[in-house]
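User: Please predict the structure of the protein below. I'd like the answer in structure-token form so I can feed it into my own downstream comparison script.

Assistant: Understood. Taking the following sequence of 87 residues as input:
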Amino acid sequence: MVRKAEERKAEARKDVTKLRQRFKKLMQTNEESLPAHLQLDRREFELDPIFKEEMNKNRKERVEQTEKELAFETEKCELALQKLFQK
């Protein structure tokens, strides 16, 4: 289970890196390739505050769920280890 979680995290990191590169390229194109009257202001690239709040809430819920799952797995492994030592 931990290995699977690590794989998902690594995949998410790759996705975030790709998105950051794409965003950086868009910003660069906006600043360097477009005439001034067509350029977007930096604030126009920012997320809608309500959407951003919802994303943060969802992320927090996922983190809490993952922490609960890890706590369960840890407890399960500790009990199994105790049983091994009791034999």
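That's the full token string. The chain has two domains: 1-46, 47-87.
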